[in-house]
Amino acid sequence: MKNKTFNFLKKTIISIIENDFSGMAAEMSYMLVIGIFPFMLFLMSLFNLIGKNYYMNPLFLFLAKFMPEDSLRLIHMVLNQVLEFTSGRSVATFALLVTLFMSMNALSVVIKGLNRAYKVEETRAFVYTRLLSLVMVIVNTLVLFLSINTIIFGKLIIRFLIAYTAITPDVGDMLLTIRWPIAFLALFIMAFLHYYIFPDVSWSEELKRKSALPGTIFFCTIWLIASGGFSIYVNTLHTYNFIYGSIAAFAMLMIWFYFTSMLMLIGGEINSQIHDKLEQDKILAILEAQKQKEKELEEAAAQGIDIEEIDIEIIEKHNQEREDL
Fold first, then answer.
1. Residue 238 reports pLDDT greater than 80
2. What is the distance between the alpha carbons of residues 319 and 313, in angstroms, rounded to a whole number?
3. Tell me, what's the pLDDT at 315?
4. How many CA atoms lie within 13 A of 249 on its CB side?
5. Which of 134, 182, 194, 246 falls 20 to 30 Å from 111 in CA-CA distance?
6. CB proximity list for 223: less than 8 A, separation 6 or greater
7. Residue 156: is it exposed, middle or buried by C-beta count within 10 angstroms (0-12/13-18/19+)?
8. What angle do CA 316, 320, 325 make, to 5 degrees?
9. How far apart are CA 154 and CA 164, in angstroms?
């Protein structure tokens, strides 16, 4: 068991190095850093136009749970400075276009990375992959919106339901308890869709679903735990200020995005390695069955049993399986 686990980890690490996931994660984090400013700017401009700029507060509160405090402060400062000198409508339009472009570029890197992990070439049309990225940008936005409202507004929503519906306080407490699992489920669905849709593989739908699960569980679990720990570290120790100086906030933002991107790619590699192992076990089982059948035929021939009396259909089936290999 230990040898199997060691070999699995060894193959995964070697593949991560050979596929240059470190470089791809850097490319993704660069796109995300460039894209987060116009995305937040778009939201602030939109809410400012409708006179609801305080709607941004829940988003900042949510990000504060995972993102370094100085990085979040940097984003807030830049957005306020831009809005101070520009009109809301033009800024919102420009920011939306830039956000879509950069987000689609970042997801195209995810597609390329997952294809590399699964050892397949991209055969789908460029327009198709871009539309796929656009759809996932929208899905990611909706998932983040659900997570933010579940975590930040969970108490307010439950109080409203208790006051104006038949929900009892006990049920309300239960709903309040499960809001974090709901947020985890939303993140799980988002990651699962990335692993399920993005790789250009021609497997069956069932096999694609099974192969996407291990990496999804890995990404969601490690990301939530490590992001929370990373946020606590940078918000309490502040040792990174001695290294990066005045650009410390920007550097921490880059590191956070790099870490997220790397986890996404590693999750894809885990899916690929587990899939390869399952396929290898399947092939070995077929070969073992064929070997056993040949042994039975040899024993039957040695005992003078008529070979034609043996189930010919089984023999043909195993021969076909061998040809497929």
1. no
2. 10
3. 54
4. 11
5. 182
6. 187, 260, 263
7. exposed
8. 150
9. 16
Beta carbons within 8 Å of 215's beta carbon, 6+ residues apart: 191, 195, 266, 267, 268, 269, 270, 271
Q: How many residues does the chain have?
A: 325
Q: Cα–Cα distance between 192 and 69 in angstroms, integer?
A: 29
Query: What's the farthest any 2 CA atoms get from each other in the chain?
Result: 97
Please say whether the beta carbons of 196 and 209 come within 8 A.
yes
Of 1-15, 24-38, 227-241, 245-259, the poorest mean pLDDT is in 227-241
Has residue 242 got a pLDDT over 70? no
Q: Is 167 left (phi over 0), alpha (psi -120 to 50) or beta?
A: beta
| Token pair recorded at residue 23 | 């470089």
Q: What does R_g of the chain's alpha carbons equal in angstroms?
A: 26
Instruction: Tell me which long-range contacts 321-324 makes (C-beta under 8 A, separation of at least 24).
Output: 321/286, 321/289, 321/290, 322/286, 322/287, 322/290
Q: Which residues lie below 8 Å from residue 227, measured CB to CB, with a gap of 6+?
A: 66, 256, 259, 260
What mean pLDDT is predicted for residues 193-200? 89
Residue 158 clears pLDDT 80, i.e. is over it: no
Condensed to tens digits (0 to 9), the pLDDT of residues 24-35 reads: 888 888 887 777
Average of per-residue pLDDT across 225-252: 64
Which among 21, 193, 195, 201 has a CA at the least distance from the CA of 120? 201
Q: From CA 122, how far away is CA 135, in angstroms rounded?
A: 18
56-114 pLDDT tens trace = 566 666 566 656 666 667 666 766 665 555 555 666 677 777 778 888 888 888 898 88
Question: 190: helix, coil or strand?
Answer: helix
Q: Which amino acid is at 87?
A: S
3-state secondary structure of 249: helix
CA distances from 201 to 52, 117, 208 (A): 45, 11, 8
Burial code (b: 16+ CB inside 10 Å, e: under 16) for 244-277 equals eeeebbebbbbbbbbbbbbbbbbbbbbbbbbbee
